[in-house]
Amino acid sequence: MAVSNLTMVSVIEARSAERATATGGCRERGCTALESAKCAYVDGRGRSCQTAWCHRHLHKIGEEAYCRRHAGTVAALAGRAKDPRALPAVDHRGASLVNWIWMEGHTVLQEGVACRLRPGEVIFEDRTVNVVRQSDGTRRWERGWRIGDRGGLTSKVLICVDECNDSLILLVVDDNVAAVAVPPWITRRQTNRAVTPALDARDRSQFYGFLCGHIRTALALRA
C-alpha cells in the first residue's frame, strides 16, 4: 500500500502540535498534578491520542513522550514505529499486547518451542513486533520464534493479534491457528472484576501454560 509524502508530513506535523499542547490535569489515577501534556501518539490515519499526563506519568521514547499504552506500542515496533503503515489505530492495543505476552511469557513459551526441536534445529527470536498484511487487506501484529536448520527455516511459532479484534490472542504455528484466547487480565477489565495479586499470578500462569501446551502439541505433529 502506497503512502504519499503528504500523508507522512501530515502525521509528523500532527505529532508536533500534540507535543506542544498542555491541558488541565493528569489522567493517572490518584495523581493531583495540574500541569500535563498530551500523549504524542498519532496513528497512520492522523488520529491522535487525546489522553494527557504529567511529566512523571508520561513515558519518554526518544524525543517523544507517550501514555503507557502507546509507549508500549512504539517500543514494540521499534524502528517500524516511524512507518505510518505499521502503526495500529489509536484505540488498538495489538502491537503492545503481542509484545507484552512475548516478554512476560517468554521463559514458558520458549521452553515449549525448545522441547520440540529436532536434531540440528535452532531457534531464532524475532527482535521486534512485525506487522503483516493479510489476504483480506487487514493487518496482523506478530512476534515469535522461527525454527531452522542448515537447510533453512523449518517452522515458526507466532503470538498474533489481528486488526479486527485487539483482545484476542492467536497462537499461530506454521501458518495454522493452534489456539485462541483472551488474556485473563483483559477479561477481568472487560467485566470490571478485581482480583488479588495471588489470583492474578495464578491466572497468568495458567494462560501461559495453555499457550505452551498448544505449542508443544502443534510442533509435535509436524510432518
* Number of continuous helical runs: 6
Distance, first to last CA: 35 Å
* Unreliable parts: 1-21
Secondary-structure content class:
alpha+beta
Q: List how many beta strands DSSP finds.
A: 11
What fraction of residues sit in β-strands? 15-25%
Rg over CA atoms, rounded to whole Å, is 19 Å
- What are the secondary-structure elements, in order, as H or E? HEEEEEHHHEEEEEEHH
Shape: globular
Overall average pLDDT: 89
Measured as a percent range, the helix fraction is 25-40%
Count of folded domains: 2
> Main beta sheet, described?
6 strands, antiparallel
Gist of the model:
The chain is built from six helices and eleven strands. The two termini are 35 Å apart. The chain is an alpha+beta fold and 223 residues long.
